[in-house]
Design brief:
It is a single chain. With 193 residues, the chain is an alpha+beta fold. The chain has 2 domains: 155 residues, no CATH class; 31 residues. The protein is built from 3 helices and 11 strands. The strands form 2 sheets. Strands 1, 4, 5, 6, 7, 10 and 11 form a 7-stranded mixed β-sheet that branches. The protein has a 4-stranded antiparallel β-sheet with strand order 2-3-9-8, covered by helices on one side. It starts with 6 loop residues before the first strand and ends with a helix.
């Protein structure tokens, strides 16, 4: 299946702030928790991030908008953005910079307008399976992590689901059914003749 298309996902894990220290933290992704807001069921396996932080250049952005500036950065695991993988998922932590963007984020957090987190990534390995009328996608390996973002409009990024893998699998299933039908009719014609 075609991989390496950038995807964005939200999670409902709370973003917190310590206003005195300007420390912002939250979970960018949770392991083994079914997706919310997608037309498929999607989970991320706990080993999906093995080695990813050490080879990625990850930014903390507000609502995935790099044009506004960055809040923090982790380049191959080092920098002002702390990324930690634990049994729950990917935790991020940074001190909001003393910039207009940093002040804006702190104000949004204080007022409760930014309450969720999101992340942008590409997939190296996934498995799709049909579950009744819906599909289940298990992300086994993330290829690259691009950003972790406190977000204020969760619906925004839930619409950016990369569905190419599902579409390709459905096409392969259709082609397999066609081959099976062709083989059935070929055998039936041999039997009748």
């Amino acid at each position: 299946m075609e991989q390496n298309k950038k995807e964005i996902r939200n999670i409902a894990a709370e973003v917190t702030v310590d206003e005195e220290s300007r420390k912002v933290e939250g979970y960018a992704l949770l392991f083994n928790v079914p997706s919310d807001g997608l037309d498929i069921e999607e989970i991320i396996e706990p080993r999906a991030l093995d080695g990813v932080i050490e080879r990625s250049n990850v930014f903390a952005l507000l609502n995935h908008d790099e044009r506004r500036g960055i809040l923090a950065r982790s380049k191959k695991g080092a920098g002002t953005l702390s990324l930690t993988v634990d049994g729950k998922g990917l935790r991020y932590r940074f001190d909001a910079p003393r910039t207009a963007l940093g002040d804006e984020l702190l104000e949004y957090l204080k007022r409760g307008e930014v309450t969720e987190s999101s992340f942008a990534f590409t997939v190296a390995e996934d498995v799709w399976e049909k579950k009744g009328e819906t599909w289940k996608r298990t992300i086994k390996k993330i290829d690259e992590l691009y950003d972790v973002s406190p977000v204020y409009d969760a619906a925004y990024s839930r619409t950016t689901v990369y569905m190419r893998g599902k579409e390709q699998l459905e096409q392969e299933l259709r082609e397999q059914r066609e081959r099976e039908l062709d083989a059935y009719y070929t055998n039936l014609n041999k039997f009748l003749n």
